[in-house]
Design brief:
By secondary structure, the chain is of the alpha+beta class. It contains 6 helices and 4 strands; from the N terminus they run E-H-E-E-H-H-E-H-H-H. The chain starts with 6 loop residues before the first strand and ends with a helix.
């Protein structure tokens, strides 16, 4: 895992029936602690689902910062407070690849990811291609392959940091079904 990329950790736990409110309180309190850690980018709580499973999603700017949280004394202290609230082992999934673009969704369906990315990439390409063609015509000294590379870099930056976070929030309900 590359430590220079943002990372999302999804922790799934089975909450003991009747202890859901205690778990919500625990998540809220942990959220107050974790946000003080360097590189923290947010925490999301997903309500109980099948089998009373709950999900807590931690986002950090680097794998290293996530590891700092995971190895901290504060986290160990708060994990100790889960006794009698959850049962069984927790499951931890870390997302750093393209699933990062869908970071607010637990497990979006692959066909929905493909559809959304196709629409967004096509739309963005329809805007950027003519723009970069104009730049290429205005500055013919720059090789075409360099313009193509610049277009890909700009497109990926816009997708990752600007467009997809908004799109996934907008389509969250649909993506999660």
């Amino acid at each position: 895992m590359n430590e220079n990329h943002s990372v999302t950790a999804v922790i799934t736990r089975c909450v003991i029936p009747g202890r859901e409110q205690d778990y919500r309180t625990w998540v809220h309190d942990v959220g107050q602690v974790v946000k003080q850690f360097p590189g923290h980018r947010g925490i999301t709580y997903k309500i109980p689902g099948e089998g009373n499973e709950c999900h807590v999603i931690f986002r950090f700017d680097t794998v290293e910062h996530l590891q700092d949280w995971e190895e901290s004394e504060e986290r160990k202290h708060w994990l100790g407070k889960l006794e009698g609230i959850v049962k069984g082992e927790s499951r931890v999934d870390r997302l750093t690849g393209i699933e990062f673009l869908f970071r607010d969704q637990l497990h979006p369906k692959a066909h929905k990811m493909v559809f959304v990315l196709t629409v967004v990439v096509f739309s963005l390409s329809s805007v950027l291609t003519p723009l970069f063609s104009l730049l290429n015509a205005a500055l013919p000294i720059v090789p075409g392959w360099l313009w193509a590379l610049a277009q890909v870099v700009v497109q990926l930056l816009l997708l990752t940091y600007v467009i997809m976070p908004h799109i996934t929030r907008l389509l969250a309900t649909w993506l999660a079904r």
